[in-house]
Queue: 4 jobs
Job 1
Amino acid sequence: MAESSPPEPQPGPARRSVLRWLAGGAGAAAAGAVGVPLAAYLGGAVGGHPVNWVPIGRVADLPVGETRLHVFTDPVREPWDGACAKAGAYVRYLGPGDDGQPRFWVFAMNCTHLGCPVSWFPQSGLFMCPCHGGVYYENGEHASGPPPRGLYHMPWRVVDGVLEVQAPHLPTLQDTLEKPSGLVQLGRSRIGRPTGA
Amino acid sequence: MRRIVRAVGGWFDSRLKVRESVMPMLEHPIPAGAAGPKGWWYVFGSASITLLLVQIATGIGLALVYVPSTDQAYASLEYLNYRQPLGWFLRSVHYWSGSGMVVMVAVHMTQVFLHGAYKYPRELTWLFGVFLLLLTLGMAFTGQVLRWDADAYWGVGVGAAMAGRVPVIGPAIVELLIGGQTIGAATLSRFFALHVFVLPGLLLALVGGHLWLVLSKGISEPPEPGQPVDPKTYDAKYHELLKTGKPFLGDAMSKDALFSSLVVIAVVVIAALAGPKGPHGLPDPVLTGANPRPDWPFLWLFGLLSLCPPGLETFVMLVFPGLLVVGLLLVPFISNHGERAPSRRPVAVMAVTVAATTLAVLSYAGATAPWSPVMEAWSKDPVPVEMVRRSGPLELQGAAVFQNKDCRNCHALDGVGGRRGPDLTDVGTRLTHNQLIDQVSNGTPGGGNMPAYGKKVNPAEMEALAAFLGSLRPPGQPPARVAAP
């Protein structure tokens, strides 16, 4: 300021530093009061993987030795999800095992390379990925191309003669469906996510 | 009338102080060389900003109609394309102007690099520019996601799969990125917030900083061979140079305005002729026909990821882009003094040539994607008649096996079909009957390019298939035989 003003009595150094500390402290508290909940809000997306079983069909109705894409609705969904609430599983009923219990191959649709959707070719018994040409055998094992491993297996169970699969999260190499990431699972107990709808 | 305007203007200016604060900025002197014919080199930055303004204007327009929710986004894009008057045009201009912005930023950066304009004292201006490039690419990616079609859906999936490879915290990053367990409503909302609020805010702030630096450090003079930058003497020299300088508000500004206008006109013409991009396939996670492709600014990465050896892949995904950015950030610190003229900087010229060629080759590879199987070739592409005109029943049966077992998805006949594996038009001259059976049965040893079909092709089919493949020879060519030991 160019204009000169009459000298005012200056507050003592002690008072000034108290004011400065007070302003700094209040500023930090205010920033924290807004910032911490905001960070928690954004971090709330990391909420672990709730376990939801989805019925696929009666075991007796599933053809033996045929791989089929079964489409179902993810139970963890928002009303405005639209088609995104859909999920798919490649299911193959292998018939009863030596112990009489039914056996299945259940695979997620995502390629293990970069997550693109694989297509099933029954004539050649191969899953092919359109992105970078990853190919898998009918048992899910890696056949050729860049994928670092076989298809992701989806956990399944049979309850009262009905095959159920676990609704999948987006599987990635360190967060598979068989063995979800421990780090992500940590968040599960913290935040209860609505699983209805 | 004039007096009234002047009085009103004066009333505002006595409060806003525009004449004192803004006019000197516009009239700041620039080196005479930059105001002359060589000033045409200086127009790309302002064209980038002009296109950013077009993006803001058209983006606001699109936001009035677009619905950022996964159940309605696709329908709202179709509404824009077909129902909303000029909706298609706004979408088209937004896409082509965005593409133009990526081009202009890249050209601007290349010009600054080649002319050594990043050297002392404009290192920080360059750093701001690098982050502006990253933000522009970020806008291109998030914008592609808002075009909520199959490419967008699976594009997010690919991004998540890459992020998921980050050691230990990868899965948490994935959930943070997609906003939950799966790609869905929260994902699109996140990308909307990024594309409409976060990234444009950062972009405008950095543009402000970039321009402030241009003003405070001055526009670089056109480079002259034999006039190296010496940080000790540069400021004084530049100060001296400005004594014969020309005001920016003059020829330089006219060049900027003319070039920017031509760029906008070109964008509008292209937009009107080419139309908006997509939306293509439905964003439905269980439609397996999807054949996702990134938008052109990312085709080079798509190509690189497809062509690099699997062992290097995670490195190329996670570390390599970081190294590229660090490399760009280090440019003004590696050489902040010395010659500026391209004729005296062969390494710089070569670096640009190599980088441009690499990007072009990888983008071309990404656009043609020869590594992708052609998923419908087995049922869509017929066996060329010439190849089976003189075939016996066994070979004909083999041709049917060839198509039925999806071989065609990866192997072309006469140039038609997949190109992941070799074209088999002449395979009979290269492999014997037994070698063919071995190749088909066992595939490439060690999980290479070709799966093993041994369990999926029965002996009779195998015999027929090998007979067909063995018959694929140009007229007069003998079949392959094993060389004598």
Job 2
Amino acid sequence: MTTLVAATGLVRTFGARRAVDDVSLALSAGECLALFGPNGAGKTTVLRILAGLLRPSSGEARIGDVRLPDPAARGRVGLISHRSMLYDALTARENVRFAAALHGVPDAEEATVRALAALRVADRADVAVRSLSRGLQQRVAIARAIVHAPDVLLADEPYTGLDAQGGAALTALLRERRAAGAALVVVTHHLHEGLALASHAAVMRAGRFVRFERAEGLDAGRYATEYQELVA
Amino acid sequence: MPETSAAPRRPFDWFALLAVAVTAAAYVRAIWFTPPEMLQGYAQKILYVHAPSAWVAFLAFGLTALAGAFWLFLRDPRLDRFAESSAEVGVVFTTAVLVSGPLWAKPIWGTWWTWDARLTLTLFLWFVYLGYLVLRGVIPERDARARLSAVLGILGALLVPFIHLSVYLFRTMHPMPVVANPDGFQMPPVMVKTFFFAFFAFTLLYAALVRARYAFATDRDALEATLDATPDGGR
Amino acid sequence: MRAPGLLAASWAIARKDLAIEFRTRSAFLSSVVFSLLAIVIFYFAWDPTAVGPLALAPGVLWVTFTFSGLLAMHRSFGVEAADGAIDALLVAPVARESIFLGKALANVVFVAGVQAVSLPAIAIFYNVPLAGAWLPLLGILLLATVGLVAVGTLFASITANTRMAELLLPVLAIPFFVPVVMPAAQATADVLSGRPIAESFAWLRILLAFDLVFVYACTVAYPFTIED
């Protein structure tokens, strides 16, 4: 299996604060890392480094064998942030199409329709994003992030605001991306949800990975108890 | 033994004392030992403040831009502390130029303000670097502050020739009567020497002020680092 | 998949910005109304028997363009900041310079649109004969607008990272507008008073040099203004 995401010795400081403190990880095609941790543990910062949005203070991150933030590496990443990253004056279709155009997707129109259908928002495609509900906006945001079929999908609390149908669509989509050979990093507060999806699980605290293991065969109930002790 | 929290005292700043002494000496020489200029009288002595201040102002902003440019590539916090210090001291000297200019112009040209090419350039430079300090003041994150102010400092340096060019062209297109031309008269050697002395003294004063301001910035950053490192002080 | 090149990406971003603007029209409308208000109010700031409207027009025009342009440029990064959309642009495999160029291009179109309304307005209100002067005037407008927008767009990106961006943008940008507004206003005055354009070449040269230096410098500097 080829390594898709490789981070070695990531450190990111803000002023004197070390938001990320010596984090290393490697994910191969089809693997999914569920990243847990309390607020301020550095999860989002790790994700932003892996997306090429933040420069690590030391260490390096690679997508495939290209070092971030090289455009060739960024182009293979899809990012679902805790913000929608949408233009609320434009329609869902225009937003997703614009992302497709920036990624050089060959048939942007078709890819746009497919992405919106996967999140079951195709019927609201021509409505301005600002008049969509929070949950529907989140679906469009996810469609925007996957329209170019990224090899690496980084998701920061992707289930926020989604209803049961939206959550199911997202879960199906994440599994489908995994099966297609993508590597995933999912930051979430929901241990059960995360463990059900993931091949690996990690807990961050104060900028460090304090626990990292294969997720398959883990008992979710026991993990939850141990997690509470770990981050307390 | 309980630790005392008194800050470590810095050794006495002999360099600052030297700079002040040399500056004082330059003024003693300018006021008492240099004869007044024939046409301008005692008002001409204001130029012993005006001209060296202008030199230091441009030096300060040039070095600020240079430090910013190097920061973008080296990311060394010392360069940013220097840029910050130099800009702040530069604004002080620019203010001295803008105050001493009108003081001299009133008795000589009969008006407080003239849109003289160099005075106008200095005025706009003053605005650019006041903006620079305001910008620094509103960005709490240290790296972002250094990065954005470096960009502004470099662009500010690029702007200087353009302002000079357009102000100069404005003057040639709309000539105003010239009452007295300070460049025109031949200075006797004693005045030239006093000028050189004043330039030297002000440069020394600039170095001393930047040094003191830099030391302050170092202390402040160290203090912030300690506060950030303590669990409750951080974000 | 092949990522779009610098120009293609800039064009896509500019089109997206203009589409947003066309959809909402709020910023454009307020800029136009602002310009008209400024033109009208400035008329009453002078004694028309002492200073003729023709003598006033160039100054009024350029002060108006400067401030309405700032409104446009401030908004230009506001739409990116609102829901974090700038992050999506930064993750996309396009050169970061293309974000700047796209935004600047959209701003040029925006400012040109405002000018297309306020120029006839000043011709009517100030009784300025544009008939014989419009071609050289167009040249001056283009040269000056490119310079204004290049600097303004970059500073909008700088101030977008700060609180009180709307206040800081004019404070930072206006000193940089001096070598644009002064030559542009002077050249406009020459052209409007019926002098041949050749007499303004010295001014136009400054504008052209400013455009070349600052379009390049701001494009290169833009990636440094992004959070990293």
Job 3
Amino acid sequence: MAILIDEKTRVLVQGITGREGRARTKLMKGYGTMVVAGVTPGKGGQEVEGVPVFDSVYEAMEKVGPIDASAVFVPAPLVKAAALEAIDAGVKLLLLVPDRVPIHDVLEIAAHAERKGTKFIGPNTLGVLSPGRAVLGMIGGRPETARQWFRQGDIGVSSRSGGITSAISYYLSRAGFGLSTIVHVGGDAVVGLPHPEVMKLFEQDPQTKMMVMFGEIGTTQEERVADMMERGEITKPVVAFIGGKAAKEGTRFSHAGAIVEGGRGSYASKVERLKKAGAYIAEALMDIPRVVTEVRRKHGLD
Amino acid sequence: MARLFEYQGKQILQEAGIKVPRGKVVETPEQAARAVEDLGTEAVLKIQVWLKGRAQLGGIRFVKTPQEAKKAAAELLGTRVKNFVVEKLLVEEKLKIERELFAGVIIDDYEKKPLVVFSSMGGTGIEEIAREHPDAILTHHVDVLEGFPEYKARGLLSRMGFKGKLLVKLSSTLSKLYQAFRKYDARSAEINPLVITEEGEVYAADTHIAIDDYAVYRHPELGIEIAREFDRPPTELEKIAYKVEENDYRGTFYFFQMVEKPVPDENYIGFHGAGGGGSMMSMDAVLNRGFKIANFTDTSGNPPASKVYRAAKIILSQPGIIGYFASGSGVASQEQFNSARGLVKAFMEDEIEIPAVLRLGGNYEEKAIEILETFSRFIPGKIEGYGRDDSPEFCAERLKELVEKGGRKVHRVKPIKEYTPPPGAYSFKTLTGRVYIDHSLCARCQARDCVEACTYGVLKFEDGKPVLAISEEEAARGKCTECLACELACFLDGKKAIHIELPIPGLAEYREKITKEG
């Protein structure tokens, strides 16, 4: 089953003629994603990697039929316009890849998305990958490496860091485990699909038997996952690793999200809340496969 | 979050139509005296620094006369308060305060909406007030498509018991604060205290506004030097680094100094991470091995080799470091050979003698490690490259061993020599630099690896010499990605005919200054 993306998802690429859009279209197609159209206003009629390019999302939908998801690769200042167009055209899942999208633009995107029932992932995300099925975004770099790094299986991965999404997934695969879907929720303070939302999707997904979550200091995403576990909304086992133990309060380490605001969201608060709610805490990244092994044994998952 | 000074915040509030005390920013005791004279009332002098609780720090003085103001200003200006040197004071009329309230707008990350917060009991200990006197606190999520008009504010505040003219003034203030918050892309905008005077007027007595880093470009009028949060003014080197980032949109580069003058005995190393999560994890690994980091740097988002090169040059402008550590998540999706090329170009130019452990795991890591190994023999210090199957802990341990084995060499910063192109050199502009090719050396070249190395098809041979295969405009616009492959290939062939000049404005002067300082 997997979540969010599989081989049947019909994908649009906005900004397909740009440097990143072009390169990542090649990766997505090479991995098996059904990329059906691209959009760059003013460049309609071209082709990129065999994908037809249109001037607007509306036109793309008219010509190629329904679109399930759009990967947005336009420069940060243009993300809002691209996202609003896709939402207006009726696309139900957006992936906002760019870093440095102004937060007030994200608030506007969120307001429109809420009205139309659209989900969006990111901004500042590497994307989503369901091993052996499809990738939305840029996880894995090249199709060969993505195939080599990530095995199919029953662990769902949700992470606030792009590199760590790949790292956890690779180290789990190397240890012989498999993954249902891996999700980089995005590194910013406000993201469309934070951990709790992703966990909800994994909880409902029959292929997923357990989850691994990488959290960071800042925001309340991890605490909310703990709340959901206590309320019984998440029943599958959760292994969590929280980064930023050494980070000074208030010092931001690149990720806009990694900041402690108003006393919430500290390393200690997250770990404590998650432990109390019954999550398993890994103390280091390299420790995750070992913790996962123990959790699977305990829950009879092998 | 780029913080604004109080006087900047008040300008924004005033522009939005919120009452602020009459006042003036001054930089000398004489200006302070004059300001108080002009006000013609008792006044308050406030230091302009990004710190809360200035009163406890002695940064707020009440004065009755211009003479008192002059004396107080002389005492405040130039003093050091935490990490700041006081350069500016805000001189304001003293308000006759009847009551103190709090108003703020922040972003609720989970609801993805602005949250208006109002407290009728002031802002000090607001979490406690919310617990003990929930009726005194108003919180309201705003739908950005609807906004927060006065009538909404009025409805909410009237339920809290405000009436008549005061109700109207407060609702107007709250609505205008929200508008200013939106207009200036604020992460947070607070008025604390929001004051009701004895005359029944509503004033913003103090304010804290922080602007979203990613939207600072929309507000050049604010004059924000570095769009990042600091609890001190940015260092000179940070300003140089920030210019690099500002002038190159490809990938991201972040540079933050933990210490301006690393002391070698204290185990400082240059730290070069990649990606937020991976950088933090890698930082933990070196800290756990007893190192301290002189700086925190992150180049990620598939940066070009030129950006990684500049990052390395800036890291290597810190004297006193005893090692160089680069590491990210280990399973990066970016093209790692770019990082490898940027690093070796910087290391060779600076002839570094300290050891460097570079964990460039992920996409194209084999190629990246091969580049490091190939060029390590041209670098005096020991260089080791590692990949995704080598943990950050292992790599940090390796650096420790290399530092000890090499006799704890201390990094010396080299002056930057101005590059003089050979006469008649072929040259073209790239997005952030310039490529020079000395064609006189190409005639005798058998290897001709430069064009082959250029996988982007930017170069071709014409009469046996490498020249642009695309137009000069295309090269300058970014078609030449500054991958540095041609320069390094030519270097290996022993010709050194290609030089890619990647200027870093201000760095030569900076290095000259610190080498003089010894």
Job 4
Amino acid sequence: MNTNLNIEQLATHQEQNDPVEILRVALEHFPSSAISFSGAEDIVLIDMALRIRKDIQVFSLDTGRLHPETYRFLEEVRNHYGIQLELLSPDSRELEQLVRTKGLFSFYQDGHKECCAIRKVAPLRRKLATVDAWITGLRHDQTPVRASVPVAQEDTAFSTPEHALVKFNPLANWSSAQVWEYIRNNNVPFNELHRRGYISIGCEPCTRTTLPNQHERAGRWWWEEEALKDCGLHVATAEPSRPQPAEVA
Amino acid sequence: MTTHIIMVKKILADGAPCRKCGEVYERLLRDGLLQHIDRIVTADPHNPDSEGMRLAARHQVSRAPFFIVRDKGGNEHIYDSFLRLKREVLQARASTTEVALDLAERFPELDYI
């Protein structure tokens, strides 16, 4: 890891630069950088990175609940680019405990966080403990909480006192339209679910298609808006009703 | 335990605890840590004068459950993360899932990974 790199300066300096340049900085300063690939349009990161270096490290979180189309796409990416795609699985004991006590669809009642914690966050944390930097496809236009994501940052979520971690978000300033323009112009393979109206692609039970002009957030955890109010401590005029599991797209 | 710990939980209109409060209570029970909680008070959003609502307003906490820890010197510390309470005050080991869940809740941008 290059400890002389000033991430804050880098983020400011790189703000106007294109994703390839940000990737180049990441891969040069942090040779063990790993690209986190979700099986969606963040495929452009792999395509761009391979133009810089052939021995890139790519991983995906295999939650066990992805669409069959996404599994096929992961395999297509592996073959198309000739890369080693590392699939990270949840801890079997933690997962079995969840399913034994709460069943396979607890997220419709309890919210998605617990399931995501076991199937995604814990394996991710395990992986990130082995690298100095990781590269994500986060973009400002995806969700309000991502609106201020810098192109490079110290990862406050996964860094520990013993292990500093840097996160690069090369696509932060790109719009969805720019990503898709790159995909088309460079004949980049993409998940066939995008053809069927899926914008944001996650686990099958938690992803649905969206209507034109709907925000992509509408396609994920759509049943939770009311559920999240459940624990709020604000003076109430009427108790929010318990959400019902919505139809799965 | 040389501290005094209050757990503030929210109750819904039917008197049941909110989802998260119920889960945290179960975890305290399962991990044998409930004995360290000196008092459990309820916050009823339909009653702003309920003790829990008054404590939430006083400490400017917006989500349940939360914990008020009074140390030996009489100073109060607020813990709105059960994981932090478990590790720092109750000095108990957190499971892999608890750590991951805490991360998922504190860093919502992780939602789309």
